[in-house]
Design a protein that fits this description.
By secondary structure, the chain is an alpha+beta fold. The chain has a single domain, classed as Rossmann fold, CATH 3.40.50.170. It contains four helices and four strands, in the order H-E-H-E-H-E-E-H. A four-stranded mixed beta sheet has the order 1-2-3-4. Helix 2 links the parallel strand 1 and strand 2. The longest helix is centred in the last third of the chain and has 26 residues. The two termini are about 20 Å apart.
């Protein structure tokens, strides 16, 4: 089931129950999730974030990394808790920051690694459950 981030979560929550959803997997979800949804899926919600958490949580993580001048950034699959980008880390991938990087070029390389680690992170988390 696909949840649009443009629709209120409250409108979709009954559908999650109706379709017997066991896990909520979020990618590109640029909203803060309510505790109501988190409590309904304890330790069964995953997010992917474009930084090596705990560095650069929240929005504009790639721009934060470039501004900070780090040499390595990456992406993180983590459990969702009420505190933004603070849940237990499942898996991470490092991506070098090149001198000529822009948010777009670095973002593209991070996204490539996201596609590698997200399925792995889902499998790891499912085996922990």
């Amino acid at each position: 089931m696909h949840l649009s981030h443009k629709e209120p979560i409250a409108c979709k929550f009954p559908n999650l129950c109706q379709h017997q959803v066991e896990w909520v997997i979020m990618a590109g979800w640029m909203r803060i999730v309510t505790p109501v949804l988190i409590d309904a899926f304890p330790q069964r919600m995953l997010n992917i974030h474009p930084s090596l958490l705990p560095s650069f949580p929240g929005i504009r993580a790639i721009e934060q990394a470039l501004t900070a001048g780090v040499k390595i950034t990456g992406c993180t699959v983590h459990f969702v808790i009420p505190e933004v980008d603070s849940g237990a880390i499942v898996i991470q991938a490092a991506v070098p920051v090149l001198p000529e990087d822009t948010p777009e070029t670095l973002g593209h390389r991070i996204q490539q690694q996201e596609h590698v680690i997200f399925p792995r992170g889902i499998a790891i988390a499912a085996n922990l459950a």
